[in-house]
Amino acid sequence: xxxxDLLAPEAVAANLKAQNKKQLLQELAQRLSHFxxxxxxxxxxxxxxxxxxxxxxxxxxxxxxxxxxxxxxRIVGMFARLETPIDYDAVDSQPVDLVFVLLAPxxxxxxxxxxxxxxxxxxxxQTTCEKLRAAAKPEVLYALxxxxxxxxxxxxx
Length: 157
What we know:
This protein is an alpha/beta fold. Helix content is 43%, strand content 22%.
């Protein structure tokens, strides 16, 4: 599973504005509603409910909110770089500015876990995160996120 399987170029936002975690999740749900055709409210409730189980803020300014939704045909992702980092109750108590949302079908099983692992591997790369924080355009963010999809030893054509 590659990032390109999860993320469409139009599902990348640069300089997203949010004052807090709840507002961020609602903004992401609104945008994801356009990509999935599912109601914004259902998406927001799913993400908020998952956060109640424990923060998806994995540290170093990164969060991977996720959830499962009935009626979703495939795993869908969205990436956002926040204009200003926000408190997210992350494991290291640091504010979050890089967010990759994953929504999976209710019966996704292992594919949901594989997608989370893939996104986590990309965002654990410090160099990639530094480049994501420096990029200003969605198309650059998308290119940075997906360039690793070719594998760690591949060369760009």
